[in-house]
Amino acid sequence: MYKNLIKNIYIKNILIKNFLIYNEKEFLNSKFNFLNLKNYDKFNCYMEIYPDAGGIETQQLIKFFTDFYIKWFQKNFFNIVLIYKDIGEYGYKKVLIFINNCFSFFLVKNESGIHRIIRKNPLLSNSKIQTSYLNVKILPEFDEINENLNKKEILIETFKSKGPGGQHVNNTNSAVRITHIPTNIIVSCQSERSQIKNKINALKTLNYKILVKKKTDTKKFLNSFNIEKKYIKTYYFDNNLIIDHIKNKKYNLNDYFKLNIDFLNLC
């Protein structure tokens, strides 16, 4: 683990140092581009986690995987924000994480795809082995979306936040709802106690949804970012085993979720 971490920090430092020395075109064609970086690999990125197939147990799985990713990012000094979470009865229905680091898209893009989980359902007694599927989508944050967001085309509303079961999180209008009028995309955020933070997170979520809407019409574009129906990993909980279908490797499941194994693109 520590050798991989040192290796990752070393390589990231080389990437950033030489990217600053050269302009983008020169860097991508230089000897320093030994990892075959593309022009979009330098961007921050979004990680969206949502069910691909399965029942209510996927809510518990999404929360489990979200907690794992967040702990891993924090341990390895990534700047992240959980900008959206759709809370369900047993966990999360969907989440969106913003990763704000140079080359973060390059480093985590191999997580993008279908994650297959084989285990007994913890929500049912005497449950048989069953298979659930989560979809992890990784997309870069394009500057063009942020720059071109017309303030005249968005409607911002505030309302009082509520927690699970209708309990009031606070008595102020801290929750934010934003409507993008041209596309009729509506996003809301109430995860923070601060209206300002909720507005920032809602705008990031809106940026992401506009990006997806603008780009998903082009299948070739999505495939260039590994956003397609392909298996990334299979998790066998009863056998304490993970199979990585991209790297053709096997991992100890307990070690993986205890943050002792690196999943970055560099490893």
TrEMBL record:
Keyword Lipid metabolism among record annotations: no
Residues annotated as domain Peptide chain release factor: 35-136
An example molecular function term from Gene Ontology annotations: translation release factor activity
One Pfam family from the record: RF-1
Gene3D superfamilies documented for this protein: 3.30.160.20, 3.30.70.1660
Record keyword Glycosyltransferase present: no
Record's keyword terms, sorted: Methylation
Prokaryotic-type class I peptide chain release factors domain ranges (all copies): 144-245
Top-level taxon: Bacteria
Listed GO CC annotations: cytoplasm
PANTHER family in the cross-refs: CLASS I PEPTIDE CHAIN RELEASE FACTOR, PEPTIDE CHAIN RELEASE FACTOR 2
Similarity-based family: Belongs to the prokaryotic/mitochondrial release factor family.
Protein name: PCRF domain-containing protein
Originating organism: Carsonella ruddii
